[in-house]
Amino acid sequence: MLKQGRWAIAAVSMLLGVMLVGQYKMTQSIAESNIHLQRTGDLARELTAAEKERDELRQQLEAIQKNDATASTVSDINLLKQRAGLTDVTGPGVVITINDSKIPVKDNENPNLYLIHDEDLLRVLNELRAGGAEAISVNDQRLVGTSEIRCAGPTVMVNGKVFAPPFVIKAIGDPKTLSAALTMRGGVVESLKYWGIELKIQKEDNIVVPAFTGTFKEEHVKAIKQGGDN
């Protein structure tokens, strides 16, 4: 009877041992599974955060590109307006004052030889342009591609407005180069002074040439679209 009890105790002990080992393995497996799930959850959260950060950076980049495009467009427009003469500009250059001759007209001489004409102004302006003038005005009338300078009796018309002497020409550019272009030997200044026309050139570090305030008339000109189609 005693021997049977010992065998029963041994069997129960063995069974308990097997059950404990199985329970331990199951617990370990569950723990490993939980760790795996936790790591998977952590990775999922990290991925979500990374995707969110990526989207935010993409939005910021798109905003920057849009702002850069807008700034570039505004800069291009301002540059075109400046080149078209539609904005006030400033810089170094020369100021030229031209007045009719004070020399008394002799008998049998043509008095017009001692007066300033449109062709005289045009010669001065042409030399300034050849000297690299970047902006020019005559009596504060900005010269653009459609500006006209022509005589109107004893006066000169500029941009449709009539002016009498003296004429003040402002030109932005390198002062030395502009002055040299006008005073070269046999040039326009020497020719005008022969008839007593008063001409004074001042080099300035900073002058202002005002914007063109007239209107552009484009009745016949048409832009050509890309590809050559009108």
Please report the total strand number as a whole number.
8
* Relevant CATH superfamily of the largest domain: Protein of unknown function DUF881
CATH architecture of the largest domain: 2-Layer Sandwich
The portion of residues assigned to helices is 40-55%
Terminal Cα span: 120 Å
Q: Rough shape?
A: elongated
Summed over residues and divided by their number, the pLDDT gives a mean of: 79
Helix-strand string: HEHEEEEEEHHE
Q: Supply the number of structural domains.
A: 2
According to CATH, what is the class of the largest domain?
Answer: Alpha Beta
- By secondary-structure content and strand pairing, the structural class works out as alpha+beta
Query: Can you summarize the main beta sheet?
Result: 5 strands, antiparallel
Oligomer status: single chain
Transmembrane segments: 7-24
Pfam family, one: DUF881
Family: Belongs to the UPF0749 family.
InterPro entries: DUF881
Question: How would you characterize the overall build of this protein?
Answer:
- The protein has a 5-stranded antiparallel sheet.
- It has 2 domains: 1-83; 89-209, Alpha-Beta Plaits (2-Layer Sandwich), CATH 3.30.70.1880.
- It is elongated and about 110 Å long.
- By secondary structure, the protein is of the alpha+beta class.
- Residues 1-9 have low confidence and may be disordered.
- Strand 2 and strand 3 (141-142) form a beta hairpin.
- The chain is built from 4 helices and 8 strands.
- The longest helix is centred in the N-terminal third of the chain and has 82 residues, at 2-83.
- Helix 2 (118-130) packs across helix 3.
- The chain crosses the membrane at residues 7-24.
- Residues 40-67 form a coiled coil.
